[in-house]
Amino acid sequence: MSTAPVTAPDTAAIVSSSGVRGEAPETRRPFRKYFRETGWRHLVGIAATVFALFPLLYVLSASLNPGGTLLTANSLFSDVSGESYLQLFQNPRHPYGAWFMNTLVIGLITSVFTVLLGALAAYSFSRMRFTGRRFSLTALLVVQMFPQMLAMVAIFLIMVTISDIFPAIGLNTQIGLIMVYLGGALGANTYLMYGFFNTVPASIDEAAKIDGAGHARIFFTIILRLVAPILAVVGLLSFIGTSSEFVLASVILIDPHKQTLAVGLYKFVADEFSKNWSVFAAGAVLAAILPVALFLALQKYIVGGLTAGSVK
Amino acid sequence: MTITDPQPPTPPTARQRRASRIADAASGGWGLMLFKVVVLGLILALGLYAALVLARTGQWVVAVIVMAVAALAVWIYFGRGKLPAKYLMPGLVFLFVFQVFAAVYTGYVAFTNYGTGHNSDKQSAVNSLMLSAQERVPDSPAYDLTVVERLGELSFLVTAPDGTVSVGGVERPLEEVDGAQMDGDKAVGLEGYNSLGFAQIVADQQRIADMTVPLSDDPNDGALRTPDGSSAYVYTSALVYDEDASTMTDTRSGVVYSDIGTGAFTASDGTELKPGWKINVGFDNFTRAFTEESIRGPFISVLIWTFVFAFLSVFTCFALGLFLAIVFNDPRMKSKKYYRVIMILPYAFPGFLSALVWAGMMNQEFGFINVVLFGGADIPWLTNEWLAKFSIILVNLWLGFPYMFLICTGALQSIPDDVQEAARVDGASAWQIFRSIKLPLLFVAVAPLLISSFAFNFNNFSLIYMLTGGGPRDVTAGVNVGATDILITMVYKVAFVGSSSDYGLASAFSIIIFILVATISVIAFRRTKALEDLN
Q1: Which residues, at least 6 apart from A166, have a Cβ–Cβ distance to it below 8 Å?
Q2: What is the DSSP string of chain A?
Q3: What is d(CA A251, CA B496) in angstroms, rounded to the nearest whole number?
Q4: Per-residue model confidence (pLDDT) at position B136
Q5: Nearest CA of chain A to the CA of B180: how many Å?
């Protein structure tokens, strides 16, 4: 059931399920029959579409509403301008541009290193046999049961201690936050990657070895290319996960100019809830464009990755 | 989940091992070697620097560990073999520090009274108490002072009225020295230290004014402070510390505060001097969670709501997702692709943003739902206890049904057609086929995902925190909680929101959450495995 949901069922399914038609009561009028069998499904589909889309349309409309408050945002698409988007970048108390860049940078660095660390570990688990291998794999599963979010107090206190000694990587630094995120790099990702690495035939490595390639060259130039799809999935999930992570980011980053979108936009809403609603909406739309686009472009892979374990 | 070996492990023969060694040596050119040397050199240098800094602050254990890890890295990457370690080490270092150690440290903090007012050891608490009660000794003689600096750390070089020259710094009591450079009666320089000029003193004014240099190891002797950077005066504290009796006496009021084992100096009438210090309190935080009246009530209701919320979230999302999956699974239906893309959108939209947007739409006075959909009604979606709970489930349904829809569609399509066909031939109705064949098969496939979805929602921080902030607030509670708080938001609030933090209690809650989630997951996974074996 990996990538099935987004691909249309093949013709075999159509032929085989045609038997259902025989069970439906005989009707002479084609429309009633059509409605009974298929038409009502479209009604459900339209209802679901409205439910799924209307908050998104609402936020889009609110973002285009010039100078809108929460109340004026209610008239959908009555007035369209890009004013809120401009305002977003002009308020020094809410440095949206900085938040955006921070989120991008933290998310990218974290996901690149998450992929790298995870791939290194998965490669060794998949290709090497060593004492303690089974134990380490099980241990990884157990460690995952204590998600980092639960340890937020401890992580905060560790960062406080670190900043007493090495302020450059302690509290209120983005390097510190990235390091914390990398603590969770092995967790679930190793399993996803491990499974995928196993599907790459070992004979490829052996052939390369005979040709004189060392393990480093095999890993970096051959294996990593063959497992590129799973690297993309893990990188993407890690990027999306990191860029919307709130708890640790809010605990570790204190200075508004260092914060991420999740922390910044939350503070923005908490500070001036209904006053600058369309500015917030503009910020939300901009913040959502990248993840949504990535999701839609790569839905096939992501759905596969999701069904293999991780959830939102 | 079970761990399966893809290929049976065959131990390499001696020949193979030799061959791979030769291959290794041949493939790594000098460029790679140079890269390795540079990177490892950097790691070693960083480790050495870190260890030195740590050693200077007295963190010997950590310093040794840092050096050991750096040495281990060098040993692993320069040695032959140890291949698995070469690949595992980078990830494991982060895992150990920020996940394993953090988990263990959570356990440790849960057994302490760590929090606002109890954040250091007893000695620092004594020092900071005495510092806060410091007063200049009336008519005390002035000490001639030169501010000196070594390695970025400031010290006082003082000449006492009797002519003895000594040097000392913050937390480093005065020590007599010989051989200072004298200018008349005043010591102005010392070997190994730089004397600060006037401009530097002005530049560092605040730091110098804040410095207190103890006269001796006994805090009751007082300390030196300087108002101008050129002469120092003796300040003593109004609090007198008696180390043997472990008491603090306030010389102004005569009240005696003694250490009665609660981590703070306490007077006989129960008033505590703050700050106190960190002590181990055993299971106190856990017993407080379950017995102390003002915490137990909110804690139990938060606990119940957490379970109800997690269960209802999974149930509603799964029900709607499955229903839609079945509806859209009809092969004759057209344009399914478009419906599916639209249905992914709520899932693709960042979760914290959706919660904030919904919070705006559900606003009681100005929100879209009340003003437009309900024609100006005044429904307290987020401020009434029960409506807030309902709203959370509704928003979570919006957020979560696409995921369930996707996995149910996948699972439905992977059920082989011949099974259904056989049933149909035997005369089963569509409902019977669904009830007795499709659903059980579907459950086997999605059960692990339902469990992980439950575990996820159990800790679904951003939805609760962004939508209702845990509110409406329960004003009678001894801790900062509201009607829709789940355990994880309660941990966050107890530790980080508001004026006082109780890290110990928050960590205890974390441990309780961990025990609950782990127990449920283990039991549930066992069950589903049994389910799998049946089929």
Answers
A1: B50, B53
A2: --SGGGSPPPHHHHHHTTHHHHHSPP-S-HHHHHIIIIIHHHHHHHHHHHHHHHHHHHHHHHHHSTT--TTGGGSTTSS--SHHHHHHTT-TTS-HHHHHHHHHHHHHHHHHHHHHHHHHHHHHHHH---TTHHHHHHHHHHHHTS-GGGGHHHHHHHHHHHHHH-GGGSTT-HHHHHHHHHHTSSHHHHHHHHHHHHHS-HHHHHHHHHTT--HHHIIIIIIHHHTHHHHHHHHHHHHHHHHT--HHHHHH--SGGG--HHHHHHHHHHHSTTTTHHHHHHHHHHHHHHHHHHHHHTHHHHHHHHHTT---
A3: 8
A4: 78
A5: 31
Chain B residues within an 8 Å CB radius of A154: 102-103, 105-106, 109, 507
Nearest CB partner across the interface for B90, out of A6, A120, A133: A120
User: In chain B, what residues touch A41 (CB-CB under 8 Å)?
Assistant: 327-328, 330, 333
> Under a CB-based contact definition with an 8 Å cutoff, are residues B92 and A186 in contact?
yes
- Give kind and range of the element (H or E) at residue B488: helix B487-496
The Cα–Cα gap between B358 and B370 comes to: 12
Is residue B366 helix, strand or coil? coil
Q: Are A19 and B430 in contact (CB under 8 A)?
A: no
SS3 B443: helix
CB B194 within 8 A of CB B183: no
Q: Which residue of B has its CA nearest to A60?
A: B357
Alpha helices by DSSP H, B186-292: 198-203, 205-210, 284-291
Q: What is the mean pLDDT of chain B?
A: 83
Looking at residue A18, its pLDDT comes to: 40
Distance (Å, rounded) from C-alpha B115 to C-alpha A156? 12
What are A2-15's pLDDT values in tens digits?
333 333 333 333 33
Give the pair of three-digit tokens for residue B486: 């789940």
- Contact across the interface for B339 and A51, Cβ inside 8 Å: no
Q: What are phi and psi of B237, to 5 degrees?
A: -90, 145
Q: Which tokens is A213 given?
A: 């390639």
- Buried b or exposed e, range B239-259, using 16+ CB within 10 angstroms: bbbeeeeeebbbeeeeeebeb
The packing angle between helices B351-361 and A261-271, to 10°, is 10
Give me B392's structure tokens.
Answer: 């959370």
Cα A193 to the center of its chain, rounded Å: 16
Nearest to A247 by CA among B106, B491, B69, B452: B491
pLDDT in tens, A39-57: 888 889 999 999 999 999 9
Q: Residues B457, B463, B469, B473: is their CA dihedral positive or negative?
A: negative
